[in-house]
Design brief:
Layout: H1 10-13, H2 17-32, H3 36-50, E1 61-62, E2 69-72, E3 102-104, E4 110-112, E5 121-127, H4 135-148, E6 152-156, H5 159-162, E7 163-166, E8 169-172, H6 174-189, E9 193-199, H7 246-255, H8 257-271, E10 274-275, E11 280-281, E12 288-294, H9 308-325, H10 329-336, H11 360-387, E13 393-395, H12 405-410, E14 416-422, E15 426-427, E16 436-437, E17 464-471, H13 481-492, E18 496-503, H14 507-510, H15 524-538, E19 548-553, H16 555-558, E20 580-585, E21 595-599, H17 611-621, E22 637-639, E23 645-648, E24 653-657, E25 661-666, E26 671-673, E27 677-681, E28 686-692, E29 703-709, E30 712-715, E31 718-719, E32 726-729, E33 732-738, E34 741-747, E35 754-759, E36 765-769, E37 772-774, E38 777-783, E39 785-786, E40 789-790, E41 793-798
Parallel strand pairs: 5-6, 5-18, 6-9, 9-12, 12-13, 14-17, 17-18, 19-20, 19-21
Antiparallel strand pairs: 1-31, 2-33, 3-4, 7-8, 10-11, 15-16, 16-32, 22-23, 23-24, 24-25, 25-28, 26-27, 27-34, 28-29, 29-41, 30-33, 31-32, 34-38, 35-36, 35-41, 37-38, 39-40
Helix pairs in contact: 2-3, 4-6, 7-8, 7-9, 13-15
């Protein structure tokens, strides 16, 4: 479906991003219905109440080729053997499942049944038609992902194409199932592991859950759910009147037996199916490394908006839970804080509470919601283990609402998963089309704020993954995303990362496409940024912190005797850049000699900001923090305990300094200083780093890759304001890279024998770059603009000495 530009009145452009965020989540239906005036009036009232007038109208900005923006040629397939072919740069084995089933060790790491070495994953998500390909294209994609360095794929938004919608029956389509099977086998053959969710966005008729509902399809997606070519994200939430909304069905599965049976039926059909290309049931295939039960299904995401029959189902479950837990009105009133005479669990008349805020009712309601989540997980695990004989590792609750009670639920999972985004768009019209607003955030200047919270979803005795993350387009600072995410994940010793998303459709796999919010295939800047994360995290260039801060608690303290309900992340979350962090849930909560425990109980608050300095002082007193560590809380500068990562928010600089990868981010005029390289950013903010490609330290490496990332937009990208926060039109090909210059002073052995080549985005050499060498230091000039074309990548090759090498 061709993208269309939706005109945006100046009134919207004048509002700040926080007001637009409120609109996006709460008022968007008014605009979809055509009542834009209602949104403008609502936002104006919101701002007036805060004493914040709307901004003056901004000057529109359009990106076009010129001295500041240079066209970039794109080829999706990596040249075999080139400096960008990471198939042999990173650890890999094939086929996937070679060492048996993936397991979770007692140390909280992934490993395999027949290989005890800890295993990490770095992959991409695939969505929609990008998973239903011809055999030739499936093989081509699998080969490409291997050369890009990935060892995992997350199958996502896939079920609508697999299911043939037959009333009262769960049937998989033979044509799309064959494509699905072949793609899975292609990944497995090449050592790419697969994960997925058992429910993401499959459409379910209301009549399959509520017998009195009509099966007549209404308007919207219900009419075309079985036709691949007609499904787009533009009508993703615009389901027909006869169908469940995607988020509503997740909520129904928790409390309605018929909805749960429908959920089970799909899981049974998929996992019991034998793939003819692997000759294994999916339930038995070790290449299916893990499963999440439902995507982003934390009830707190949606519970405040429940309506109609679904709200009745939840209220019935809530009242039954209260009746079982509180035998008399006195204890019930104490638990809720307020109990009206007409409210009686026996009659189902105690209303649902809010999960947000404080007070006894909120705490009790969060305990109820957590119990619902746990019962769902326990029921499904029993079904998968006993009936389906599926031993695949299981998780759930991967976004977005995380009260502390969820940590008790997660303690029962095989591993913990979460999602995070930087600059996720707020859509102002049809879903996933302009106009949209985002913060266009400089994550470095923000001190890494935005995903530091995710570090506290982790339980230190379980593997931890992020199966969705992105620094979304068209954010101008997204080039730093690979370096920052790889550094944090490695420092924290996480176990898996998946970038969302490689592509939402098959077309973007076959040929270059204009940049979009999420698609890596259509964004060569983000694809280049990935290599930093691959080296730092998957290859292990950056070492995990040796110590940790462990927030300790018990299930009882979080649930039965809870006295507080708040987010699981503490106010001191910036210390995630200093050392490993997470929770330990047990009775008693175990810790190790390398951990600083902070007890979460009724009488203490380990999440308070006042703990920040205490933690730092305790680390210094224990000798865990070297005297030379540059952390300064007053200046908002954090350096990891190993010294390999420094983030200086006021200076807007990030420095990553490891043996095999070194570089960072800085504004124009600033310097990035590492042991093996000194990088000067001359005239445009940039992310620049150098990585060894042969596994040797940078100083001794014979082959290295330098990456220089500024910004990248489409030709004709149009914004409604000079801060580029209001996107009006995506524009078209070709991609345009922001002109910029930097120099890298590289301290390597035999610098006089080194040659430097500029590279195309597929790894082919496009020309030699002239360098200079003085006192063993090679100076490499970097310039995005070269002969009217853009470049971002450089290869260094140290030539052999015929007499000695």
């Amino acid at each position: 479906m061709a993208r269309q530009t939706v005109p945006v009145p100046a009134a919207i452009a004048s509002f700040p991003s926080h007001a637009v965020a409120v609109f996006s989540h709460a008022v968007r239906p008014l605009v979809v219905a055509g009542t834009l005036a209602a949104w403008v009036a609502t936002a104006a009232l919101l701002l007036a109440a805060e004493g914040k007038p709307p901004r003056a109208e901004g000057v529109p900005v359009t990106i076009n080729a010129g001295p500041d923006w240079v066209p970039l040629d794109v080829d999706l397939d990596i040249e075999p053997g080139s400096a960008l072919d990471f198939s042999n740069v990173l650890p890999r084995h094939a086929p996937a499942g070679k060492f048996g089933r993936l397991i979770a060790t007692k140390q909280g790491k992934f490993a395999f049944e027949n290989c005890a070495v800890p295993m990490r994953f770095y992959g991409v998500d695939l969505c929609c038609t990008a998973q239903y390909l011809s055999r030739e294209l499936a093989d081509r994609l699998a080969e490409r992902l291997v050369r890009l360095g990935y060892n995992a794929v997350r199958i996502h938004h896939y079920e609508r194409w697999l299911v043939e919608r037959v009333p009262g029956e769960m049937r998989l389509r033979s044509d799309t199932l064959d494509q699905f099977d072949y793609l899975f086998a292609a990944f497995k053959q090449r050592g790419i592991y697969v994960t997925t969710d058992l429910y993401v966005s499959r459409l379910i008729a209301l009549a399959d859950v509520y017998e009195d509902r009509s099966r007549n399809a209404g308007t919207g997606q219900a009419k075309t759910a079985d036709r691949v070519e007609n499904w787009t994200f533009e009508n993703y939430y615009n389901v027909g009147a006869a169908d469940f909304g995607v988020q509503d069905f997740k909520m129904a599965v928790y409390v309605n037996d018929r909805a749960y049976e429908n959920f089970q039926a799909f899981a049974r059909a998929l996992l019991d199916h034998t793939n003819p290309y692997t000759r294994l049931r999916y339930a038995d295939d070790p290449a299916l490394a893990s499963l999440s039960l439902m995507n982003e299904d934390c009830p707190g995401n949606f519970i405040d908006g429940l309506q109609g029959r679904l709200r009745d189902d939840w209220q019935l479950a809530w009242n039954r839970w209260l009746a079982a837990r509180y035998p008399d009105r006195h204890s019930l009133a104490a638990a809720l804080g307020n109990l009206a005479d007409k409210q009686d669990p026996a009659r189902g008349t105690v209303p649902l509470q809010s999960i947000r805020g404080q007070g006894p009712g909120v705490i009790t309601f969060n305990a109820f919601v957590a119990d619902v989540q746990w019962r769902f997980f326990d029921r499904t695990r029993t079904f998968l283990r006993d009936e389906m004989r599926c031993q695949t590792l299981l998780t759930d609750c991967n976004g977005w609402t995380h009260p502390v009670q969820v940590q008790a639920v997660r303690s029962r999972f095989d591993f913990v998963d979460d999602h995070f985004y930087v600059d996720h768009p707020h859509y102002l019209s049809h879903v996933r089309l302009p106009p949209s607003r985002s913060g266009n955030a400089n994550a470095v200047a923000g001190g890494g704020l935005g995903w530091r919270d995710s570090a506290f979803s982790r339980l230190l005795d379980k593997p931890f993954t992020i199966t969705e993350f992105n620094y979304c387009g068209p954010g101008q600072y997204r080039g730093v995303g690979g370096l920052m995410t790889g550094a944090l994940a490695a420092l924290q010793d996480w176990d898996g990362l998946w970038r969302h998303v490689y592509s939402y459709n098959r077309e973007n796999i076959t040929r270059p496409a204009a940049m979009y919010y999420f698609d890596v295939a259509a964004d060569p800047l983000t694809q280049a940024a990935e290599r930093a994360g691959l080296c730092l995290f998957l290859r292990g260039d950056l070492q995990p912190a040796k110590h940790a801060v462990a927030i300790t608690s018990t299930p009882d303290a979080l649930l039965a005797s809870a006295t507080v309900s708040r987010d699981r992340a503490p106010a001191w979350n910036r210390l995630a850049w200093l050392t490993r962090v997470g929770w330990r849930i047990g009775d008693p909560s175990p810790t190790t000699e390398h951990e600083l425990p902070l007890l979460f109980s009724g009488g203490t608050d380990p999440l308070a900001a006042s703990n920040e300095k205490t933690i730092l002082d305790r680390f210094a007193q224990s000798g865990w923090l070297p005297a030379a560590n540059r952390t300064d809380l007053n200046r908002n500068r954090i350096q990891s305990e190993s010294g390999e990562v420094t983030i200086d928010a006021p200076a807007s600089t990030l420095t990553v300094d490891t043996i095999c990868t070194a570089g960072g981010f800085a504004p124009a005029g600033k310097r990035i200083e590492a042991r093996a390289a000194t990088i000067d950013i001359l005239d445009t903010y940039a992310t620049v780093w150098v990585s060894s490609l042969d596994g040797e330290p940078i100083t001794r490496s014979k082959r290295l890759l330098i990456t220089h990332l500024t910004d990248l937009q489409n030709t004709g990208t149009r914004y409604g304001d000079p801060n580029r926060q209001l996107l009006l039109d995506w524009g078209r090909l070709p991609h345009l890279a922001r002109a910029g210059r930097a120099t890298v002073a590289l301290r390597i052995e035999h610098a006089e024998r080194a040659k430097v080549y500029s590279l195309a985005v597929n790894g082919k050499r496009t020309g030699e770059v002239q360098t200079s060498v003085a006192e063993g230091v090679m100076s490499v000039p970097l310039s995005v603009s070269a002969d009217g074309k853009a470049r971002m990548l450089y290869e260094i090759e140290v030539q052999p000495n015929a007499s000695t090498d």
